């Protein structure tokens, strides 16, 4: 196998090697989204560009530039799925914009969700974590609690779109309560009364699904809408051994009277729609389905009614917060919530 290099990155993305090189030197003329894609591919193929920082330090030895490490908890195959836009790419583009503007060195690495300790050999290979000097970490996607605990003792950290339990971390996230409230208002306006909530269990606890569930219960209570316990799927006590079992239960509850499902994430909604269609149920004529994320599918697919998360703004804000956190390591913890917008698709119809 050929040694990972900039030409491989250039070929993979269909850009010039010169463009790739400029991405690693914070060249002002590079689009932040392009720079983010270059870093993603570099992380995927194992290309290390720390030598560029060394050259920069030789040129400007007194400046000692700030440096961020972005860790993405995802298998690369899942991260680069082509059936819908990757939230991670949007988040990383926002981080890239801030670091490029402020001449901050950026390193990106993938971490498998199966890793539960920083002592894991695969984790130890991440070169960007070997030095604590002027460095902080941005986390994308949920990590194992044990990993977060170990990292937070060594670095200032900002988590994007996942409010972890550790009080030492800052978080920049979407306002789940505002988003779910907008979605329920829309469904009620369309005549829906019996609304179900669907999520699923993950290898690493998805705290965002619990926040959206609590927002669902609060809004339904405020509107004095009855919530049937059996219409809440994927949350204790209605948990399932696998996705297929949860889908079967969704079909059963739909036949029992649920007219609309709010899914905690868009990928859940797309999967649910596919199962409904395979079982002869029309979306939205027979049942309406909504999501939460604003992940765009291919144009030929059913367009989801969802809450668009401002991923780019969250990434940019998260990077800005980390820069401040590095300067004031032991300041008060902050959680920053950014509102998303209701996006009307064709997965919801009026109830007569």
């Amino acid at each position: 196998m050929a040694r990972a290099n900039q030409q491989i990155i250039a070929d993979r993305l269909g850009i010039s090697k010169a463009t790739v090189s400029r991405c690693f030197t914070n060249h002002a003329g590079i689009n932040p989204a392009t720079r983010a894609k270059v870093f993603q591919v570099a992380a995927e193929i194992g290309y290390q560009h720390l030598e560029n920082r060394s050259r920069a330090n030789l040129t400007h030895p007194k400046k000692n530039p700030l440096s961020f490490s972005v860790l993405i908890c995802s298998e690369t195959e899942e991260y680069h799925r082509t059936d819908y836009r990757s939230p991670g790419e949007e988040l990383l583009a926002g981080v890239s914009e801030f670091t490029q503007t402020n001449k901050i060195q950026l390193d990106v690495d993938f971490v498998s969700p199966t890793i539960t300790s920083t002592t894991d050999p695969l984790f130890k290979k991440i070169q960007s974590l070997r030095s604590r000097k002027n460095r902080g970490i941005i986390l994308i996607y949920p990590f194992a609690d044990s990993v977060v605990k170990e990292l937070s003792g060594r670095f200032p950290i900002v988590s994007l779109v996942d409010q972890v339990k550790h009080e030492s971390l800052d978080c920049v996230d979407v306002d789940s309560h505002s988003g779910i409230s907008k979605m329920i208002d829309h469904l009620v306006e369309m005549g829906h009364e019996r609304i179900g909530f669907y999520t699923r269990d993950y290898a690493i606890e998805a705290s965002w699904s619990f926040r959206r569930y609590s927002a669902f219960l609060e809004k339904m209570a405020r509107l004095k809408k009855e919530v049937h316990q059996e219409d809440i799927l994927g949350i204790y006590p209605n948990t399932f051994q696998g996705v297929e079992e949860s889908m079967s239960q969704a079909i059963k509850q739909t036949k029992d009277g649920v007219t609309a499902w709010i899914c905690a994430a868009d990928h859940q909604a797309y999967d649910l729609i596919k199962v409904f269609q395979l079982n002869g149920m029309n979306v939205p004529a027979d049942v309406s389905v909504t999501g939460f994320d604003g992940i765009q599918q291919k144009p030929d697919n059913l367009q989801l009614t969802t809450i668009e998360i401002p991923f780019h703004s969250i990434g940019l804000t998260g990077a800005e917060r980390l820069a401040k956190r590095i300067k004031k390591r032991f300041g008060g913890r902050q959680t920053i919530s950014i509102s998303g917008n209701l996006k009307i698709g064709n997965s919801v119809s009026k109830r007569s």
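The chain has two domains: 6-155, 176-308. The first helix runs from residue 6 to 13.
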